[in-house]
Amino acid sequence: MLETLSKTEMTYVNHVVLGCKSRKQIADLINRSAETVSNQLKNIYRKLGINSVAELCQIFYTEIFNLKDQIEIHKKEISKTLLLFSLICISSIFEHQDFLRVRRTRKKDETEFAESADIPSSYTVTVHGK
Q1: How far apart are CA 7 and CA 20, in angstroms?
Q2: Which of 23, 56, 113, 114 could form a disulfide with 37 if both were Cys (CB 3.0 to 4.6 A apart)?
Q3: Cα–Cα distance between 52 and 100 in angstroms, integer?
Q4: Number of other residues whose CB lies within 10 A of the CB of residue 12
Q5: pTM
Q6: For 71-100, what is each residue's pLDDT tens digit?
Q7: Which domains does the chain have, with CATH numbers?
C-alpha cells in the first residue's frame, strides 16, 4: 500500500509514524505550514483508505517488517493459539467458580455439623474427607 505514496508523502508518513507528536512539529521540521501538513495527511489517509494515525502505523510497520506475508503464512497457527488461549481463560474462570462452590458447601457442612453437635461457637470444626 505504501508503494502508492510519493516520496514527499512518505516523508510525512515517516515523521508521523516515527515520533512527531503534532502536525505543527512536522511543519517545523520540514519548513511547511501546519495547514499544508494537514492537507498532505488527509490525502495520504484518503489514498490508503484509513482514518487514523493508528491505522497508518499498522500499515507502515506491517509493510516495513514484512509482517503481512508472515501473518498469512502463520494464520492457522495464530488462530489455533488464540482459540487455545481463550479456552484456557474460560476454563480457569469455571475452575475458580467451582472452587468457590465447593468451599461454600464445606463451610455449610461444617456449620450444620457444629449446630447438630451442640459444640460451642468458640471451637472450630474442620471436616476432612468431604
Answers
A1: 18
A2: 23
A3: 45
A4: 23
A5: 0.51
A6: 667 777 877 887 888 877 777 666 666 667
A7: 2-110 (1.10.10.10)
